[in-house]
Request: fold
Amino acid sequence: MGRRFKLAFLSGKSWSHSFIKEFYSMSAGIDKIAFFTSPYFIDMTDLANARGEDPNKYLIGIGQQKQAVIPPTQDVVTLAANAASSILTPADKASIDMVILGTESGIDNSKAAAIYVQSLLGISKRARSFEVKQACYGGTAGIQMGMDHLRSHPTSKVLVIASDIARYGLNTPGEVTQGGGAVAMLLTADPRILVIEDKTAFHSDNIMDFWRPLYRREALVDGHYSNNVYVDFFNQTWRDYQNRYQLAIDDFNALIFHLPYPKMGLKALRSIVHESHHPTQLMAAFDAAKTYNSQVGNLYTGSLYLSLLSLLANDTMLKPHDRIGLFSYGSGAQGEFYSARIGDGVKPDDLRQQLNSQLNNRRQLTIAEYEALYETSLPLDGGDRTFDTRTDHSPYILKGRIDNRRQYEYQNGETGSKKEQPAK
Reply:
């Protein structure tokens, strides 16, 4: 397809209707995908006991079992770099011509976190590199922008990373829905993991259900209102999608959701599952798709795509070319429902082994240790700071800040050597 497009362009020939139709229906989507999170976690039973709550309120009412604790030595840049580094080959880095980082935990009001990631990973400097923000929708916005780029440049490769740290504060109602991590996705033509269809419906409205002002590290949220808006936006986009493409719920083998906590997606699924002749299959797929979210917590922009990874690794019924529906939501608010088909190159056993290995090798913190890490961070009002990095063995770490410049470091896991990245 890429060669045919180039020849048509160079020859100056006009494009036929059939060529344009074929061109815009090209197969493109996620060719590689990886996840990274902190090496630390807390158990939700421990948190419930420390806060004087019934553990079932967290384990069943929220659907959360464990929660990632992000140390001060990790930020959205290092989380993103750690996720992407595990899937990118030297050839990928040379051919990527667009880097998009979706986040609502940006580190600068001007300079995109994507620029840091591009530099840390050694990605070609002939790439567009920028950051996208719309609450938890940023990763999906990045994917759709990347898909548009691929449809015009089918030989390209686009790196999209959804990286975030969810913070609501200690001893707050939202504390149980904290977490963090990054999902990196390499978009190409003829993808092995997920073929994204050019079928989508979206809805936006100016709503104050969740926001994080520039002067705050923690979010402000109207929890009950946000839950209701989430389900409303799902139903709005789902109905629009159905009307636009004449597809019913039984045309899907699975529906997955943005999961700030697992129970939230379940509420949305329950609102339409009665329309299916195979509700048990959809519920089983949802259970598979929430597995890792319940072990990590809220990833904001990455939550939907951790759920995708969980589905691919844990659902035993999915086959290549099965259609799945994806619902993305970002407070404020933006919702989108789109569809995709499972690729021929998915290897569930490999994905499951990689993710289980990462999550099982984390260290459990006491609540006191968690609280101490939570309170350790770069001051919002500036100033130099150096962190103790001896216990964080992640490949990419944040050492601290000098002269208003963040100091990143690459740790070679094989030799134990370290390479300091110059301040940019």
The chain is about 35% helix and 25% strand.
